[in-house]
Every structure is written in structure tokens, then in C-alpha cells.
Amino acid sequence: MSRLQVETYGYESAGGRFVTEIQVNAAGFVTSYPNFWQIEEAV
After folding, report:
1. Contact call for residues 7 and 25 (beta carbons, < 8 A)
2. Fewer Cβ in 10 A, N or C end of the chain?
3. How many other CB atoms are there within 10 angstroms of residue 9's CB atom?
4. CA angle, 7 as apex, 30 and 31 as ends, to 5°?
5. Which residues pair with 9 in a beta bridge?
């Protein structure tokens, strides 16, 4: 995993066969894992 921006990390596994960008909030908690789940904000 490598930090791409303040709230974005690049993640790679399976020898590079799976690559995605994970979004985190200011506290470092994952808020978006593309094609898997995304946090819902309270209204």
C-alpha cells in the first residue's frame, strides 16, 4: 500500500493482478473501497 494523496492510498495484491485506490477520512478510517463498499454519511 502506498499513499497517493492525503486521503487516498493505492492498494495492490495478488502479484499486481488486483489494483485499486482506497479512500480514507482524516482519522485514517477507510471510507471507500471501490466495487466493494462505501461508507454512508448520516443525513
Report:
1. yes
2. C
3. 16
4. 25
5. 3, 22
Could you give the number of structural domains in the chain? 1
Whole-number pLDDT of residue 2: 94
- Determine the length of the chain: 43
The pTM for the full model equals 0.75
- In this prediction, residues 25-42 reach a mean pLDDT of 89
14 in a domain, yes or no? Answer: yes
Query: For residues 32 and 25, is the Cβ–Cβ distance under 8 A?
Result: no
Residue 16 is predicted with a pLDDT of: 85
* Structural domain boundaries, residue 26: 2-38
